[in-house]
Design a protein that fits this description.
Cytochrome p450, globular, two-stranded antiparallel sheet, binds protoporphyrin IX containing FE
Length: 388
């Protein structure tokens, strides 16, 4: 819900200040910094503890392994059992695919139970800040959810919210490198007029930054991370579409990449043009794009995700000149806007990008606001935990 997601804004804003400082200190590692930001927001919102280093954080590592396993099996049509459900009764000894999936389940159960046990321990000691897991525990009776279901529910934001948020921000940087001169000056004019140079943009500024909001919407449209629109849906009633009969219960896969790159809705679709979201345009739904999916399964993290994308785009463009990196002879290095990873989620393959502070004053503001943020983030400092 919009209102609930707003309670997480302080965490997003503080972590975003850490991100800006990371980008200032080692811009060439921008991808790692984006991942740390996204992971830390999700783990803090969910379990009330920060992620300071994605390469060593045990929760990130264990969750990452679980997600890798999930994305290997979550490919529509990969297993014959999807077409012939009776195959699920074949004993695992004769069905290696089943044994593999059951083994994964065991590992996931262990991980999500360990995480919840740790949360309970901290709750009992009075050392757990407000977070989604705490809320679930307090509401467990009224939700009527058994322990394992609760543990899985708490784990779901990690699987769905990290790669999507970080991947979208990486696509934004790719757009800056390729199309920067066409939209960055307009965005920076707006930021300079509304914010000035003495502080970072905040959530409260967003209603006065329509062009920045359009840049964020165009990023989500231009390169949707969930290329297949997320997990397949099913039709709830018989339907006829363009003369084709679709029986109730059919598996429906919405190819989001093709939908967002459809000429008739988005002319010149591979061009990055925030103006599409300023002009009046007919498109079903509330966002003017479908990056968060549809219907009952629409992304429950859409408000949190939009907030992360908008705020960080505003701060990056406020703080940095973003553009192509230079080769040894000082020439711009071109990037391939089609070089994306394969899989359930898709994000840009590594690419070079230059990020230089717009002025010494902008750099000072980042350093100052970062120091203040660290102080406030102490409540969420990672605890030594039992997860191994
Ligand atoms: C830019 C960021 C994000 C994008 C582009 C995105 C996109 C999507 C899409 C396309 C779906 C599939 C929707 C459908 O089936 O119709 C989805 C599902 C989901 N998302 Fe997000 N998401 C983002 C951020 C987040 C965040 C931050 C969270 C958690 C806090 C989250 C949690 C979820 C969950 C739990 C689902 C599964 C819902 C279900 O199947 O019922 N997402 N997301």
């Amino acid at each position: 819900m919009q209102r609930q997601s707003e309670t997480y804004r302080p965490i997003q804003s503080l972590e975003s200040k850490v991100l800006m400082n990371d980008l200032l200190k080692s811009p060439e590692r921008f991808r790692t910094h984006l991942e740390r930001y996204a992971a830390s927001v999700i783990v803090t919102v969910t379990y009330g503890r920060r992620v300071e280093d994605v390469d060593t954080d045990i929760v990130v590592q264990r969750n990452g392994e679980s997600m890798d396993r999930l994305t290997q099996v979550n490919i529509p049509g990969k297993y014959a059992v999807e077409r012939y459900p009776a195959l699920k009764y074949v004993p695992s000894i004769f069905a290696p695919w089943k044994a593999q999936v059951l083994k994964q389940r065991q590992k996931d159960v262990q991980l999500y139970t360990d995480l919840m046990d740790e949360v309970k321990e901290r709750l009992a000691k009075g050392a757990l800040p407000t977070c989604f897991a705490k809320h679930l525990l307090e509401e467990q009776n009224s939700l009527g959810m058994p322990d394992l279901e609760l543990a899985y529910a708490a784990g779901s934001p990690f699987g769905a919210g990290v790669e999507t948020s970080a991947g979208t921000l990486a696509s934004f940087l790719l757009a800056c490198v390729k199309f920067g001169p066409q939209f960055i000056p307009k965005a920076q004019n707006e930021l300079d007029r509304v914010i000035g140079s003495g502080r970072l943009p905040t959530f409260e500024d967003m209603p006065r930054l329509p062009y920045i909001k359009a840049v964020a919407a165009e990023t989500l449209r231009w390169r949707p991370v969930a290329v297949l629109g997320g997990t397949p849906h099913a039709s709830t009633a018989d339907d006829v579409y363009k003369g084709m009969f679709i029986p109730k219960g059919s598996t429906i896969i919405a190819p989001l990449w093709s939908i967002h790159l459809n000429e008739s809705d988005f002319p010149d679709p591979d061009k990055f043009q925030p103006e599409r979201f300023i002009e009046d345009r007919e498109y079903p739904g509330t966002f003017g794009h479908s990056a968060f999916g549809w219907g009952r399964r629409i992304c429950p993290g859409m408000h949190l995700g939009t907030a992360s994308v908008e705020l960080n785009i505003a701060r990056i463009l406020w703080a940095f000149e973003v553009g192509p990196a230079k080769d040894a002879s000082g020439k711009d290095i071109d990037v391939d806007i089609f070089a994306f990873s394969d899989g359930f989620n898709s994000s840009p393959l590594p690419f070079p990008c230059s990020m230089i502070p717009r002025s010494a004053k902008h750099a000072k503001v980042i350093e100052h606001e970062f120091q203040e943020a660290l102080e406030s983030l102490k409540t969420y400092t990672a605890v030594t935990n039992k997860i191994s």
